[in-house]
Amino acid sequence: MAVPYRITIRVSEDLVKKLQDIVNRGKYDTISDAIREAINDFIKKNEENPVSDVDVKLPGKIYSILEEEVKSGNAVSVEDLIRFILREYAKSKTKN
């Protein structure tokens, strides 16, 4: 990925080692990739109207029902369907 700007920062040797350990585990290709993601997360968190990711654990039966809705063409994906359901729920709560 070509990026048009370069930012130079100084960090401790310990921090570089920790970043390299994360890269070595395979989640990121380079330390720069890890730092770019951290910067994106920081910006999202500090935006005027931030959007937050939420981890949702669903019982298997409910997940199966959502999968059936996707298979029948009522949604593009389970994740998309969950977003829709949460958005509609939030709208209904803010109307009151």
Q: What's the short version?
A:
This protein folds into two domains: 1-53; 60-95.
What does this structure look like?
The protein has 96 residues and is mostly helical. It has 2 domains: 1-53; 60-95. Helices cover 60% and strands 0% of the residues. The chain has 4 helices and no strands. This is Ribbon-helix-helix protein CopG domain-containing protein.
For the structure shown, list the relevant keywords.
elongated, mainly alpha, 4 helices, 96 residues, 2 domains
Secondary-structure topology with pairs:
Layout: H1 13-24, H2 31-46, H3 60-71, H4 78-95
Q: What is the CA-CA span between the terminal residues?
A: 46 Å
Order of helices and strands: HHHH
- Count of domains: 2
- Share of helical residues: 55-70%
User: How many helical elements?
Assistant: 4
Let me know the largest β-sheet: none
Please count the beta strands (DSSP E, at least 2 residues each). 0
The residue ranges in which pLDDT falls below 50 over 5 or more consecutive positions are none
- Structural class by secondary-structure content: mainly alpha
Query: Mean pLDDT across all residues, rounded?
Result: 88
Strand content: under 5%
Shape: elongated
Radius of gyration: 20 Å
